[in-house]
C-alpha cells in the first residue's frame, strides 16, 4: 500500500454487477458486497444483489436517468468521495463491467486524487452476456474475427460525435452498440450513407439475461421501425453484422420451458423468493405478490411447555416447510437443537417439508405418497403403531381440521400446537390487476387455500376470470378453495409441491 495513503480513509471498490441476472456477478464482487459498509448502486445494477449486503450496510441508490431523484455524474462522484473519505469499505456497484461505458475513469481518477485506495472488480459486460444468452455470438471463425463495442449515445450530437462512421461502415466484424436505442434510426442511416448494405443483419437484445429478455431481428434499413413496432425499450444492445444472423439452435434461453411466461407467485415473501428462483431457472418471469406474512407463535407458553415433554409423543407431524423453519428457529433461540426431538418419529406432509427437515439434520420417518392432509392421516393410520399412539401436530394456526379428524377417528391421541399463523398483507393490487387486464401475465399460482383467499380479497375474481390469465393450483384442497371463490382452475399439480406446480404449468400451453 502506498505509504502516503491516509489510513483513516476507507477503501473504495468499483464493482461490476454483471449484465442483469443477479447471480452473474463475480464471486469476488459478491464477497466484497458482503462486507461493504456502504453500497452506492446504479439503476442498471440488479437490486436483488443487495441480498449479499450486510443487514446494517448503508444503501445509496443513485439513478442517473431523467426524472425525480436522479443524480448527475458529479453528484455520484461527490457521494463516492465523501463516503470513502469517511472510512470503511465503500462499494460503487455498476451495471455490467464498471469500466465499459461506465464513467469509471472519472470516478477512479477522483479517488486517486483524494488519496483513497481503490480496487476495480470486473463484471460481465452487457454485449457479451446478450450474445451468450441468445446465441448471437460476437466472434466466429467463419464470419467475424473482430468486434467493436461502440456507444450509441455519441451519435446524438452528430457533429461532435467521436464515432468514425466511415470506418464502422466498412468494419468487417461485429459491431455491438451500447445505449443505441435513442438513436437507432440515426445509427442505421449513417452506416448506410457510408456504404453499409441496407440488408446487413441486425439483432436488438433488450433486458439481456433477465426473465424479460427479448430479441428482435431485421435488416439494417428496417431495424428502427421494427423496434418501435415491437415497443423495444432500453436497456438494449444492438448487434450489427453476420453475427446477428445466428444459428437458431444456439438460442438456448428461448427453449427454456417457461420462457416468455410471466408467473405470479402468491405465498409469503420468503416462499415467493424460493418459488421465483425456480421460475427464473426455467426461463420464466416471476412476479412476486406476497399475500401473507408468517408470524411465529413459538414465544407462547404452550409451545415451551410442549417442548419439555416431547418424549411423550410417538409421532410429530409437520405439514409445511414454514412449520419446520419456525419450529427449529424457536428451538435454536431456546439454546436447544434437534436432539430435543428425542425418539419421536417424524412425519412430513410432502417432499418439500421433508427436504426442509433434512436441512436441520432430520430424516422424516414417513412421507405419504400423495401430499395432502387427508392422505397423510389415512396412510399414517395404516402404519400399525399409529393407532392408540400420541401424535403431535406442529402447524399453522389456520390449518384445517381434516388431518386431526382423520387421525382421531382412526384412534390416535392427537395434540395440535400452532407454531405460526399467517396474517394478510396488501400487495400492488392495482398494478397487478392492470397487468392481468392487458394480458401481460400468463399464470397465477396458488400454493395454499389461504393464499388463494387472501389473493382474491385484493384482486377482483371477475377481472381474472374475464382475462386470458390461467390459474394453477398446488393440489385438490387449494383447487377446491379456488372453486369456492368462483375461480376456475386450469391445472392442479399432480405432485403437490412447488416443483409439481411448475411442472403442471410447463405441461400446459398458455
Ligand atoms: N457498464 C455497462 C454498460 C453501461 S452503458 C456494461 O458493461 O454492460 C448502458 C448500456 O448498457 C445500455 O444502454 C444498454 O445498451 C447496455 N445494457 C446494460 N444492461 C443491459 C441488458 N441487461 N440488456 C441489454 N443491454 C444492456
Record field, number of beta strands = 20
Find the CATH topology of the largest domain.
Rossmann fold
What is the name of the CATH architecture of the largest domain?
A: 3-Layer(aba) Sandwich
Number of helices: 18
Largest sheet: 5 strands, parallel
Shape: globular
Proportion of strand residues: 15-25%
Query: Order of strands across the biggest sheet?
Result: 3-2-4-1-5
The low-confidence parts are: none
Q: Helical percent range?
A: 25-40%
User: Rg, please?
Assistant: 28 Å
Average pLDDT metric:
91
Tell me the number of structural domains: 4
CATH class of the largest domain: Alpha Beta
Distance between the termini: 59 Å
Mind explaining what this structure looks like?
With 510 residues, the chain is an alpha/beta fold. The protein folds into four domains: 11-123, Cobalt-precorrin-4 Transmethylase, domain 1 (3-Layer(aba) Sandwich), CATH 3.40.1010.10; 128-251, Methyltransferase, Cobalt-precorrin-4 Transmethylase, Domain 2, CATH 3.30.950; 262-291 and 425-508, Rossmann fold (3-Layer(aba) Sandwich), CATH 3.40.50; 295-421, Rossmann fold (3-Layer(aba) Sandwich), CATH 3.40.50.10090. It contains 18 helices and 20 strands. The protein has helices spanning 27-33, 73-85, 104-113, 126-132, 165-170, 184-193, 223-229, 269-281, 301-308, 321-333, 351-359, 373-382, 402-409, 429-437, 449-456, 461-466, 476-484, 498-506, and strands at residues 11-16, 38-41, 58-61, 89-94, 117-121, 147-151, 174-178, 201-206, 214-219, 236-240, 262-265, 285-288, 292-296, 315-318, 345-348, 390-396, 413-424, 443-446, 470-473, 491-492. The protein has a five-stranded parallel β-sheet with strand order 3-2-4-1-5, sandwiched between helices. The N and C termini lie far apart (59 Å). The protein binds S-adenosyl-L-homocysteine. S-adenosyl-L-homocysteine binds at residues 19-20, 44, 94-97, 100-102, 125-126, 130, 178-179, 205-210, 234-237.
Amino acid at each position: 500500500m502506498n505509504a502516503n495513503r491516509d489510513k483513516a480513509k476507507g477503501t473504495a471498490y468499483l464493482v461490476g454487477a454483471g449484465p442483469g441476472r443477479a447471480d452473474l456477478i463475480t464471486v469476488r464482487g459478491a464477497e466484497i458486497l458482503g462486507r461493504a459498509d456502504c453500497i452506492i448502486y446504479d439503476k442498471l445494477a440488479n437490486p436483488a444483489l443487495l441480498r449479499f449486503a450486510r443487514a446494517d450496510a448503508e444503501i445509496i441508490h443513485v439513478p442517473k436517468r431523467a426524472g425525480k431523484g436522479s443524480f448527475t455524474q458529479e453528484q455520484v462522484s461527490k457521494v463516492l468521495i465523501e463516503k470513502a473519505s469517511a472510512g470503511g469499505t465503500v462499494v460503487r456497484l455498476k451495471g455490467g463491467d464498471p469500466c465499459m461505458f461506465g464513467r469509471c475513469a472519472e470516478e477512479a481518477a477522483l479517488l486517486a486524487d483524494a488519496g483513497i485506495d481503490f480496487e476495480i472488480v470486473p463484471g460481465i459486460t452487457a454485449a457479451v452476456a446478450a450474445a451468450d444468452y441468445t446465441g448471437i455470438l460476437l466472434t466466429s471463425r467463419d464470419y467475424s474475427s473482430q468486434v467493436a463495442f461502440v456507444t450509441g449515445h455519441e451519435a446524438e450530437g452528430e457533429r461532435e460525435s467521436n464515432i468514425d462512421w466511415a470506418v464502422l461502415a466498412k468494419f468487417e466484424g461485429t459491431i455491438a452498440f451500447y445505449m443505441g436505442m435513442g438513436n437507432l434510426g440515426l445509427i442505421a442511416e449513417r452506416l448506410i450513407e457510408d456504404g453499409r448494405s441496407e440488408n446487413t443483419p441486425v439483432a436488438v437484445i433488450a433486458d439481456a439475461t433477465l426473465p424479460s429478455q427479448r430479441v428482435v431481428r431485421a435488416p439494417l434499413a428496417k431495424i428502427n421501425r421494427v423496434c418501435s413496432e415491437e415497443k423495444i425499450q432500453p436497456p438494449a444492445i444492438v448487434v450489427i453484422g453476420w453475427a446477428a444472423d445466428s444459428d437458431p439452435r444456439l438460442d438456448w434461453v428461448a427453449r427454456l420451458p417457461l420462457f416468455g411466461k410471466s408467473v405470479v407467485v402468491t405465498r409469503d415473501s420468503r416462499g415467493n423468493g424460493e418459488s421465483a428462483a425456480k421460475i427464473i431457472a426455467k426461463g420464466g418471469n416471476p412476479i412476486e405478490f406476497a399475500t401473507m406474512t408468517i408470524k411465529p407463535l413459538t414465544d407462547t407458553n404452550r409451545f415451551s411447555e410442549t417442548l419439555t415433554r416431547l418424549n411423550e409423543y410417538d409421532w410429530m407431524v409437520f405439514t409445511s416447510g414454514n412449520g419446520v423453519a419456525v419450529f427449529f428457529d424457536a428451538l435454536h433461540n431456546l439454546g436447544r437443537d434437534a436432539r430435543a426431538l428425542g425418539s419421536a418419529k417424524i412425519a412430513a406432509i410432502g417432499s418439500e417439508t421433508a427436504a426442509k427437515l433434512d436441512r436441520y439434520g432430520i430424516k422424516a420417518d414417513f412421507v405419504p405418497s400423495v401430499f395432502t392432509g387427508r392422505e397423510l392421516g389415512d396412510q399414517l393410520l395404516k402404519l400399525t403403531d399409529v393407532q392408540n399412539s400420541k401424535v403431535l401436530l406442529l402447524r399453522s394456526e389456520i390449518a384445517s381440521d381434516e388431518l386431526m379428524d382423520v387421525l382421531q377417528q382412526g384412534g390416535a391421541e392427537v395434540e395440535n400446537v400452532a407454531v405460526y399463523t399467517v396474517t394478510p398483507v396488501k400487495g400492488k393490487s392495482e398494478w397487478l390487476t392492470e397487468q392481468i387486464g392487458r394480458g401481460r401475465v400468463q399464470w397465477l399460482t396458488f400454493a395454499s387455500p389461504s393464499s388463494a383467499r387472501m389473493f382474491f380479497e385484493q384482486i377482483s375474481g371477475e377481472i381474472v376470470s374475464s382475462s386470458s390469465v390461467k390459474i394453477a393450483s398446488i393440489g385438490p384442497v387449494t383447487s377446491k378453495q379456488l372453486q369456492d371463490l368462483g375461480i376456475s382452475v386450469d391445472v392442479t399439480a399432480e405432485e403437490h409441491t412447488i416443483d409439481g406446480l411448475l411442472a403442471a404449468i410447463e405441461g400446459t400451453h398458455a
